[in-house]
Specification:
The complex is a heterodimer of chains A (about 550) and B (about 240). By secondary structure, chain A is an alpha/beta fold. Chain A has four domains: about 15-110, Glutaredoxin (3-Layer(aba) Sandwich), CATH 3.40.30; about 140-345, Rossmann fold (3-Layer(aba) Sandwich), CATH 3.40.50.11540; about 355-440, Ubiquitin-like (UB roll), CATH 3.10.20; about 455-535, de novo design (two linked rop proteins) (Up-down Bundle). Helix content of chain A is about 45%, strand content about 15%. Chain A is built from 23 helices and 14 strands. A five-stranded mixed sheet of chain A has the order 2-1-3-4-5, with helices on one face. A five-stranded mixed sheet of chain A has the order 11-10-14-12-13. A four-stranded parallel sheet of chain A has the order 8-7-6-9, sandwiched between helices. The radius of gyration of chain A is 24 Å and the shape is globular. The longest helix of chain B is centred in the middle third of the chain and has 17 residues, at about 80-95. In chain B, about 25% of the residues lie in helices and about 15% in strands. In chain B, α2 packs antiparallel against α3. Chain B has two domains: about 5-75, Ubiquitin-like (UB roll); about 85-235, Alpha-Beta Plaits (2-Layer Sandwich). With about 240 residues, chain B is an alpha+beta fold. Classes of the chains: A alpha/beta (about 550), B alpha+beta (about 240). The interface of A and B includes residues 457, 469, 471 and 472 of A.
């Protein structure tokens, strides 16, 4: 495989396409609402209409408006159909020939689409994620070719550093710096691979499905990013850690890896260079804490998935004691676009300290539920009210939760907060991995805090005492307060435990578990006090 | 190996390179409370009792796992640390069934000693009082999970010193339990050599010798370090 062959594949693929393509979303969300049957009905309808050859049905990745699936998009320049039922298939096909069509259409110029700035999701929904030729046709693996032919590892790291990309898993650590650390860390002596690249696909925040969608809709984009990273840091082995709850993502990744190997885009001597890179999938077994990098490493090594204190950081001592680069799915998905378009292009998007875009899973009491990618620095108000379209019944939005169980609730009064790492932290929440849950006036904030604490309690691994027992005690206190059996002393104890967990827990799970409590206490203390005032046993 | 000079609680202390703050403090006669630490075993940093304050670090660091550094300033016993340690011990007391007055390990229990030293006079948290099992299927030993604090010293002693790995941990959160083999009764755990190292490693009365109370047994946690040191001498 070389660049000429890559272009030939792309051209062959484009030439073989029918002039009209019916893109049928086959991501998990649309499949859950019947996309598979719809797809076969579209195929049948197309054959019956005698349009075979002039139009084709293509199973594609996520089309963004997940709450209104199944989604069907007619390309080029055709309508986007939403909430399509299998019975609608003949009408959609008839519409290709100019017949009027009563199937619900969505305006592609609506703010939900128009205000997005897709980088990671650019090709999502425009090709069949199960065919590598289609990925190559949209420019896939060109960045890897460029890197292997034209750039030294140090130059790759320099480009990523200059782009300003920060970790999309939530903490926002500068990606270039992390890569440089791994590149500079000396590998211990021994046989076999001595440096590793790991992709963290153990997405687990309630309401978050960004990484799932990326893996399902564009698995090669992540693999390409991993390969570029491996070249940059000097690794020859990669692991893709995906949670077992994502069977479709695992299936597509498995297929993608085998296709890439067949074309010589993964494996030995990639692009006929001296660079080898192999990727294996590791399937998580349902523990949220395995998204924590040291627990994830333990899990890949075949040990109990629980964290260990850092330092040493994985960049220095990770898998089997070797320097290990761990990045999140979305981080890797940003790599190829940065190489292709240049770090300056990327750095021009976003704010001074948070460059690029962020993918959010917009959910909750919001009209347009789905996956959005917006430039960093867009305000919460723009996201919730313009893209999201506000609440379904038009009532005012009360708050938005970002960052899942490690994040916090930001009230409507602070909706002018721009989404960047620093501003969200200053507002008492975190960027997190991209979950964004919209809440209306009917939402009880004490109940929200109780829910997230229940989540942390259930997901605490049990290794360190403050998290293991502290989350249980905090959940008891919150349950008591929420159910009208709390006292002022309970509230004080809740704050004391919040401080304890923050300062003494071993890993991020325990350290950030109090965040939903602290942020709701900060912005909605009146709701806690109302619970206490109505308490049947106020102590 | 180069020596490092650091300050612990205002006292200048010299330490060997690579030594932990915990070791350096101990040599200087400064006691930092511990529970999951046991001489001779690897460190896991799980109990969080040995957390100390370091000048220049926002986060508290476990003394058992933090190597000394030149010019380091360590505070081991500020009011904030003492308060956190009391809270952690109270959380442990509330977690399972630790009732010293009726416990056979009373007087020979590190949890009890910690509570006494840290001035824990009452427990502010609700007792969770879970129903735990007692496994007396082994002919010589037994384990009462009501008294287990999940320090994993038995797990590490069995794995690292006896080299058997009969013990491990199953389950999550407060439902986590130390188990033998693949969660079979101890008496059916074919890997167990009945060496008794877990018994010596246990800080509370969770693991006991059948037919005697823990207080009678005069357990010696130091035996683990002794075995490890003796092997080093020989090899």
């Amino acid at each position: 495989m070389d660049r000429t062959e890559l272009h030939a594949i792309a051209e062959r693929e484009l030439a073989s396409r029918a002039p009209v393509r019916i893109h049928c979303c086959m991501a998990a969300g649309c499949q859950a609402t019947g996309a598979a049957e719809l797809r076969s009905r579209l195929d049948t309808a197309l054959a019956e209409a005698g349009l075979a050859g002039r139009a084709e049905v293509v199973p594609v990745g996520c089309l963004s408006l997940c709450g209104h699936g199944p989604l069907v998009s007619i390309v080029p320049d055709g309508p986007l159909y939403a909430s399509v039922r299998p019975d609608d298939a003949p009408a959609i096909v008839a519409a290709l020939q100019g017949a009027p069509c009563a199937v619900r259409q969505v305006d592609r110029n609506a703010p939900f689409f128009a205000r997005q700035r897709p980088v990671v999701l650019r090709a999502s929904g425009s090709f069949d994620p199960e065919r590598i030729e289609e990925y190559i046709a949209v420019g896939g693996y060109q960045a890897l070719a460029t890197v292997l032919h034209d750039l030294s590892p140090a130059e790759v790291i320099e480009q990523i550093t200059r782009s300003g990309l920060r970790g999309r898993g939530g903490a926002g650590y500068p990606t270039g710096l992390k890569w440089a650390t791994v590149a500079k860390s000396a590998a211990p002596p021994g046989d076999g691979p001595r440096k590793f690249v790991v992709c963290n696909g153990d997405e687990g925040d309630p309401g978050a499905f960004m990484d799932r969608s990326i893996l399902e809709s564009n698995p090669h984009l992540v693999l390409e990013g991993m390969a570029i990273a491996a070249y940059a840091v000097g690794a020859s082995q990669g692991y893709l850690y995906v949670r077992g709850e994502y069977p479709l993502a695992i299936q597509r990744l498995t297929k993608a890896i085998s296709q890439a190997r067949k074309y010589g885009l993964l494996g030995a001597q990639i692009f006929e260079s001296g660079f080898d890179f192999r990727v294996e999938i590791r399937v998580g077994a349902g523990a949220f804490v395995c998204g924590e990098e040291t627990a994830l490493i333990a899990s890949i090594e075949g040990r109990r998935g629980q964290p260990r204190p850092r330092p040493p950081y994985p960049a220095e001592s990770g898998l089997w004691g070797c320097p290990t680069l761990i990045n999140n799915v979305e981080t890797f998905a940003n790599v190829a676009p940065i190489i292709q378009h240049g770090p300056e292009w990327f750095a021009a998007i976003g704010t001074a300290t948070s460059k690029g875009t962020k993918v959010f899973a917009l959910t909750g009491n919001v009209r347009n539920t789905g996956l959005i990618e917006v430039p960093m620095g867009m305000t919460l108000r723009e996201i919730v009210e313009e893209l999201g379209g506000g609440t379904p019944d038009g009532s005012p939005v009360k708050a938005v939760q970002t960052g899942g169980p490690s994040g916090g609730c930001i009230p409507a009064a602070r909706f002018d907060t721009p989404v960047d790492y620093e501003s969200l932290a200053a507002a008492g929440s975190i960027m997190g991995s991209g979950g964004m849950v919209v809440m209306d006036a009917t939402t009880n904030m004490v109940e929200i805090a109780r829910y997230y604490m229940e989540f942390c309690r259930d997901e605490s691994c049990g290794k360190c005492i403050p998290c293991r027992v502290g989350t249980v005690q905090m959940h008891r206190l919150l349950s008591g307060i929420a159910s009208g059996h709390g006292s002022a002393a309970d509230l004080a104890q809740l704050e004391q435990l919040s401080q304890l967990l923050r300062e003494t827990s071993l890993c991020g799970l325990g350290q950030s578990a109090p965040n939903p409590v602290l942020s709701t206490l900060h912005y909605f203390r009146d709701e806690y006090e109302a619970c206490l005032a109505a308490s049947k046993d106020p102590g | 190996m180069a020596a490092k000079t650091l300050t612990i609680d205002g006292t200048l202390v010299s330490a060997r390179e690579g030594e932990s703050i915990l070791e350096a403090a101990r040599e200087a006669g400064i006691t930092i409370p511990t529970l999951c630490h046991l001489d001779g075993l690897s460190e896991v940093g799980a109990c969080r009792l040995c957390l100390v304050e370091l000048t220049g670090s926002r986060r508290l660091q476990p003394a058992c796992l933090t190597p000394v550094a030149e010019g380091m300033e360590v505070r081991t016993s500020t009011e904030r640390l003492r308060e956190h340690r009391r809270a952690i011990v109270e959380l442990l007391f509330a977690e399972r069934g630790h009732v010293c007055a009726v416990c056979v390990a009373s007087g020979a229990c590190e949890l009890q000693d910690l509570a006494a030293r840290l001035g824990v006079t009452h427990v502010r948290y609700d007792y969770l009082a879970p129903a735990c099992t007692v496994d007396i299927s082994h002919p010589r030993f037994g384990i009462d999970h009501h008294r287990c604090v999940l320090c994993t010293r038995c797990v590490r002693a069995c794995d690292e010193v006896e080299g058997v790995h009969t013990w491990d941990v199953a389950g999550r959160g407060t439902a986590a339990r130390v188990i033998t083999d693949l969660h079979v009764p101890w008496g059916q755990a074919t890997s167990c050599t009945s060496c008794g190292k877990c018994l010596h490693a246990c800080p509370t009365g969770a693991i006991f010798q059948r037919g005697s109370s823990v207080a009678e047994l005069k357990r010696d946690p130091g035996v683990i370090a002794l075995v490890v040191a003796a092997r080093k001498e020989r090899w």
